[in-house]
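Reviewer 2 asked us to include a model.

Predict the structure of this chain.
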Amino acid sequence: MQNTEVAQIDANFSLASARFIQHVELELGRSLNTSKAYRKDLDNLFHFAQERGCQELQDIGIVELRGWLASQRVAGLSSATIARRATSIRMFFAWATHTRLITEDPASALVIPKVSKKLPHILQQNQAENLMERAALRADDNSPTHIRDQAMLELLYATGIRVGELVGLDIHDLDPSRRTIRVLGKGSKERVVPYGVIAEKTVENYLALSRPSLANDLSGAALFLGQRGKRIDQRTVRTMVYHALAALEKSENVSIGSFSDLRVALRKARNRFISQGAKATDHGMPSAFTIEMSENAKETLFAKLKSGEVSDKDAEIFRGVMLMEHAQMSAEDGLVMQLHPGSSRNYSREIFENYGPDRGFDIPVRMEFTEALKPLLNKFGFSENFKLVLFTLDESTYARELAPIAGAYPSVRLGPPWWFHDSLNGMRRWRDATIETAGYLNTIGFIDDTRAFLSIPVRHDVARRFDAGYLADLVLKDRITESDARFLADQVAYQLSKDFFSL
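Predicted model (structure tokens):
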């Protein structure tokens, strides 16, 4: 396109443009960004018209408008951009005709270029989880901007709101008691949007640890702040999201357009972890629900998820499908599958606000395993290479469901008793509920993760002492022999975990 910026727009054009923008903002209720786009489109057209001798609005006809559109194509603009600009111009001239600034509408015969409709690229669940995990890892350095970025990503993912709506949020738009935000959308239409527990945690963490460090006299009530303390702008957020997605795409090196593509990406990610020495996967899920579906049904569900029109039921089904997929991959690559349903994390708002996430307060949630795991166990329960470890905080399931399942299926083990209850009495209740049906050899022994690294020696010592005492009591009651007790002590303390995880 020619360099038209050197010329000033004629006063007649400027006045008409200003009146139209006022109409767009005040009467139509369009956003500031929308009005800026309209003004830019009009300025572009008026510069073009002036260079061709048009001095008044009435001088612009269909010839000039078609010539202007042609110049957009020559400049290399996309069809979508040209179509948007043409729509802006048609809207302007329709208004100008209605307000009698001109007598006839030259844009009424203007043909808007057709834009091929393409499905938008949708971030899939595993990719989103990877993205959020990366954001969480960055936030671990306690950088105010990294904590803020994590909160913004989680809130965008949890709510589906636009970036412009995100940056427009004020602190009072949050309703923590209901986990909702009040959003002012297009056309100044207000709506209330719920968000989940994870987003809640990250936003609360941002408000407690990050925003006070960023805030100054310029901050006002803005929820998310930039490095200079002002309300963060859209460009900064979009840049942050772009870089985060670019890093994700680079790490996965795969394009996901179907369920089969997702499966390929997951296998690739698992192989990368295996190459680094990984022995297990860990699935923290709301429930143990699993479901078997045909490939066509999976692709249909995946396409529905991509469209964004997904219900809570669809989400639950998809989680069930993905547990089955991970079970299939575990049967293929040998990674032990660990399942952790039945825990409400960070239940205490006060503890979370004062000390941050994962500081205790994991409260039991009622669980059901028998029917939930039936599809998975029917398919993989007797598979030689499949291994599953079950955890839950729901004590009512120990004797009724978990122990019988572990006792029946050679692929299943029960997680360590200390995990269920970090107390001697809790461990005893767990053993009493499970030992007769599952036995000792269908439990996993002592395992832990490095997030609680400093507590592992103490927990291991307590667990060893408890199990030694429990086995001694069985000997005293003549339920097992002393040699049996010695064998089981070695198994529980060391061998069970070593063998099951192929260490």
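Strands lie at 174-175, 180-184, 190-194, 280-283, 336-339, 343-344, 363-364, 388-390, 412-414. The chain has 19 helices and nine strands. We have added this to the supplementary material.
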